[in-house]
């Protein structure tokens, strides 16, 4: 396992990290979720990502149980706020930031998180109020560093330029071989200002593992077949061109000595501004397979060939 520095912070994170969105918020049963988290830590994964909204507190609660008794400074814990927890508890106001961090710390059974992220930008709250409140919780020792996820570039720039407040050290965008939008503006802006990417759905929710075959029903037990986790893959049956293109990557992965999942993760990690690829894992074996990408050395020509194969289906992704 390799480790990278998170932006201008002093946090060092595993370049493959473990998320808990659909999986540990209820999609994967509790004992299996805890087994995955413990396995990830045993294999050298140090960054664990969650959010208050994942199962409305359920994912944080499972992580609190899984991490109980684990030496606190042996892992880096990241959570988020923004999405509605109740009709009135939502957004990035000062009151919400103080309320939601306390609730997250309680569920996670920790005194502090290493990274507190704004899950989205809140156009209804003045940015200054949000940044001041985030700074207050950092100064209170409840969060060591702050980050954002999927913010508009103008808001990122305004936060960077704001004086007298804590600085963002991380950005959490969707980024994968089939979702390259952050390359346009977010990555260059962040790279110039000490902000790393920790990227979500680096496997396109499983599409880039090659297990979804064009013209065939999704394999039993996969996310696309799950009543609780399959919502965002509901259109998989209409994405034949994309699934064909992913199958065409197979020989490239093979010549790198990797599986498709490993090849896709190594592709994400080729970008120096990416500190970590946050994978989901429904089984410990997926962690074993995926972490191989951390040490993979891939000929850049293979990635260039892969990009050419995927270019025609980028928009459809
Ligand atoms: N900031 C945001 O707005 C945001 C949004 C989404 C996610 N996230 C974060 O990013 C994390 C990862 O997102 P994600 O779960 O969509 O990531 P992903 O890594 O692209 O997809 C994970 C899923 O792919 C399948 N998979 C993984 N490895 C595999 C392998 N080797 N072989 C076959 N199948 C494999 C598993 O599903 P099955 O086994 O069930 O098929 C697994 O749950 C989340 O947990 C969350 O922490 C953040």
Give a quick rundown of the structure.
The protein is of the alpha/beta class and 317 residues long. The chain has helices spanning 23-27, 30-42, 58-67, 94-108, 127-139, 153-161, 186-191, 240-248, 250-255, 260-269, 284-291, 300-310; strands at residues 3-5, 12-14, 16-18, 47-49, 76-81, 113-118, 143-148, 168-171, 196-200, 274-279. It has one domain (3-206, 269-296): Alpha-Beta Barrel (TIM Barrel), CATH 3.20.20.100.
What can you tell me about this protein's structure?
- Helix content is 36%, strand content 14%.
- It has a single domain, classed as TIM Barrel, CATH 3.20.20.100.
- It has twelve helices and ten strands.
- With 317 residues, the protein is α/β, with parallel strands linked by helices.
- The protein starts with a strand and ends in a 7-residue tail after the last helix.
- The strands form two sheets. The protein has an eight-stranded parallel sheet. Strands 1-2 form a two-stranded antiparallel sheet.
- The model has no long low-confidence stretch (mean pLDDT 97).
- Strand 1 (3-5) and strand 2 form a beta hairpin.
- It is globular, with a radius of gyration of 19 Å.
- The protein binds NADP nicotinamide-adenine-dinucleotide phosphate (NAP).
- NADP nicotinamide-adenine-dinucleotide phosphate (NAP) binds at residues 19-21, 23, 49, 119, 149-150, 172, 200-206, 209, 211, 222-223, 261, 278-282, 286, 289-290.
């Amino acid at each position: 396992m390799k480790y990278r520095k998170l932006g201008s912070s002093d946090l060092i994170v595993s370049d493959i990290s473990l998320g808990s969105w659909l999986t540990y918020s209820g999609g994967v049963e509790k004992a299996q979720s805890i087994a995955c988290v413990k396995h990830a830590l045993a294999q050298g994964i140090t960054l664990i990502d969650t959010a208050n909204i994942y199962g409305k507190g359920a994912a944080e609660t499972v992580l609190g149980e899984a991490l109980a008794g684990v030496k606190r400074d042996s892992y880096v814990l990241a959570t988020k706020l923004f999405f509605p927890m109740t009709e009135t508890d939502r957004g990035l106001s000062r009151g919400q930031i103080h309320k939601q961090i306390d609730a997250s710390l309680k569920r996670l059974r920790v005194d502090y998180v290493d990274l507190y992220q704004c899950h989205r930008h809140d156009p209804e709250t003045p940015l200054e109020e949000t940044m001041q409140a985030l700074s207050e919780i950092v100064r209170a020792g409840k969060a060591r560093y702050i980050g954002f996820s999927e913010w508009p570039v103008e808001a990122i720039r305004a936060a960077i330029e704001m004086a007298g407040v804590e600085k963002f050290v991380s950005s959490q965008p969707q980024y994968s071989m089939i979702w390259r939008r952050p390359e346009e503006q977010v990555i260059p802006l962040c790279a110039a200002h000490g902000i790393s990417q920790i990227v979500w759905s680096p496997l396109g929710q499983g599409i880039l593992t090659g297990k979804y075959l064009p013209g065939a029903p999704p394999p039993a037990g996969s996310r696309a077949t799950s009543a609780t986790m399959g919502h965002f893959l509901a259109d998989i049956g209409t994405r034949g061109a994309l699934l064909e293109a992913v199958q065409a990557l197979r020989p490239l992965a093979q010549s790198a000595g990797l599986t498709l999942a490993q090849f896709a993760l190594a592709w994400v990690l080729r970008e120096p501004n990416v500190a970590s690829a946050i994978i989901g894992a429904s089984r410990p074996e997926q962690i074993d397979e995926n972490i191989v990408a951390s040490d993979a050395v891939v000929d850049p020509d293979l990635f260039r060939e892969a990009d050419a194969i995927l270019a025609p289906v980028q928009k459809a992704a």
